[in-house]
Amino acid sequence: MAAPKKGRGPSGGQGRPGRSLALILIAMVALTGGMFLSGHTTPRLGIDLAGGTSITLEAQNQPGKPNAINPTNMNTAVGIIERRVNGLGVSEAEVQTQGERNIIVNIPKGTNSKQAQEQVGTTAQLYFRPVLTVQASGPAPKPSGSTSPSASPTPSAKESAGAGDKAGEEATGSDVTPSPSATTQGRAVTGSLTKDDPTPAASESSDPKASETPGASPSPDPATAKLQEEFAKLDCTDPKQRTEAGQNAKPTDSIVACGSNVPGSYEKYILGPSEVSGSDVDEAKAAIDPQSGQWIVSMEFTSAGAKKFQTITTRLSQQQPPMNQFGIVLDGEVVSAPSVNTVLSKNAQISGSFDQQSAEDLGNILSYGALPLTFKEVSVTTVTAALGSEQLQAGLIAGAIGLALVVVYLVAYYRGLAFIALLSLLVSGILTYTIMALLGPAIGFALNLPAVCGAIVAIGITADSFIVYFERVRDEIREGRTLRPAIERAWPRARRTILVSDFVSFLSAAVLFLVTVGKVQGFAFTLGLTTLLDVVVVFLFTKPLMTLMGRTKFFSQGGSWSGLDPKRLGAKPPLRRSRRVNASNDPKEA
Fold first, then answer.
1. 262: helix, coil or strand?
2. 220 pLDDT higher than 90
3. Which terminus of the chain has a lower count of CB atoms within 10 Å, N or C?
4. If you average pLDDT over residues 290-300, what whole number do you get?
């Protein structure tokens, strides 16, 4: 007896369908468990369902800057606006570009919409403030003993020396390894005056008397006991405290503020009154230093700003660290704290451990004072929670009606096979729901009304895959085959059809997601996600379950309620092998 030829195993897991069912069951349990453990048991709702405010801003051309509207400046504006909105205590705001000129700001309910409207489109406050004290920030220590209210906020000589060594190392950047994720905190200021600048060069100001500028303001007074108390309590690792520090302060006030040198590490500062503002900067841009080959940020001040900058650098260059630094403060946050090594006026360079992105970011902040573009408020749409609830309820009702119609059709036409289809729809629904709930905190996915529409459309797409397979099986039965061979012979052809159909749907969703913005992307994302899950469910659940059901008496005997009754399907007589046997025994065919 000849040994059987080796070949591919039964397609679709005919011999071991239980493995596929166990795999998808494990995935369902893992996703459901992760959803409950994370505490996010419901999908995050978009602004049109949860309620809130949607603000549309349009970038405007600026005199003398015809090419200011470009992707770099738009992305910079998005980042600044997003930080402002988050500063209002909003944790789920959406800020994104729409086309080439528009920015859409979606703020969920629970936020002062008037305050948000005032914040998102205005130019932020940018100031240069002298550094009085700097310290690594962490949770405020619990008080242990009495503290004299007259204690000086300035560190002791020993502490100042240590802080100065650390600040100097961070400022020069000589021992700092450049990191793509590093911020622009703690850079050093170097530079020279241009030839046409009438102010003396740095080398000419080495004499203390020569460096004195008439009318120069004296060194800032030490911080008050109240400010020192705020400094001691400030914990910049707390997002709320970090946002509130330095807010609503006047330029003439000394303040406490937070900054970050590397991700996850924060410093807190006591800063003196502002002596230079963002409006005093004429231009700032990122460039490569031809001598060192490193990225730097070059600044050029206005005529009035050059005088102010010379005054502050004259004084700071004579101080010891950290009091020879000035903090560049944007919206109350220290974005950079460079040290001053020489007297500067109209031009200066900020050097340190920059990469291209961090240098360009700081250049944009300095050059434009905050927002790199001027924006016009095009529209403000307020969606109440009640209206959002009505829209969600209407969407759910529409989905329920669509699902009910699909169920009625399946039961009426496919009878027993409808049981397999409904179980498959249930599995698909569980996977879709749990994944959407987890994607909210993971990537910020919000379920808006178009996304709900995408999920409703997906019901028909998923049901269509089952119908394709069922019809292939019924075609095989019409040809006279019994159920179990019909299930396996129908699968390869049904599989190809399902994959081609789902590929077209996924491709459409991907193109729609890439070329559109805003809420339409929610529809495209949901459609693409459910299309991928359709393939997973059909391969790992529907086909294996069909194989198992084909072994049961109810389906294999082709009862009238099984949906596979040969008589109702008009099946041909069973296929016979007599021709093949006779041909092999015929001497003429030998």
1. strand
2. no
3. N
4. 86
**In this structure, are residues 190 and 172 in contact, taking their beta carbons and an 8 Å threshold?**
no
CA distance 335 to 366: 10
Q: Which of 187, 204, 372 is nearest to 284 (CA)?
A: 372
- Greatest extent of the chain over all pairs of C-alpha atoms, in Å: 124
pLDDT tens digits along 97-128: 888 888 888 777 655 566 666 666 555 567 88
pLDDT tens per residue across span 145-195: 333 333 333 333 333 333 333 333 333 332 222 223 333 334 444 433 222
User: Would you call 257 helix, strand, or coil by DSSP?
Assistant: strand
Distance from the Cα of residue 39 to its chain's centroid: 20
Q: Which domains does the chain have, with CATH numbers?
A: 52-120+376-381 (3.30.70.3400), 126-369 (no CATH), 384-569 (1.20.1640.10)
Order across the sheet with 102-108: list the strands: 94-98, 102-108, 52-60, 374-383
Task: Look up residue 140 and give its DSSP letter.
Answer: P
Write out the two tokens for 250.
């006047």
DSSP state of 280: G
pLDDT digits (tens, 9 = 90+) for 359-393: 877 776 676 555 667 778 888 877 776 666 777 78
